[in-house]
Amino acid sequence: MFPSERGTVLSRDNFLRRNIHSKLEQVGLGWVNFQVLRRTQASLGHKEGVDPKAAADQRGHAIGVAIDTYTMTDLETRRQAVTTLEEALQIEPIRVFE
What we know:
Layout: H1 12-26, H2 34-47, H3 52-59, H4 63-70, H5 75-89
Helix pairs in contact: 2-3, 2-4, 3-4
């Protein structure tokens, strides 16, 4: 727990509104909330190879919640997963539009 300017418990929503939103609005991201920030940290960290346990600890979650709830893979990563499996199984890719 971190204290507010008045010595009371710091509210995460007040902190977001008072300290972060103005900076986000300057770059067109005024709609961002803590859920978006958690998912961004989880997803980018996963993509960059950050240790999943360390990242989960930073967010204050168990590793299962971190992976199952917050980490989202991008389209390119999912495409690469399909390509990797195709290559491993030596399957010819399906050509839909030829």
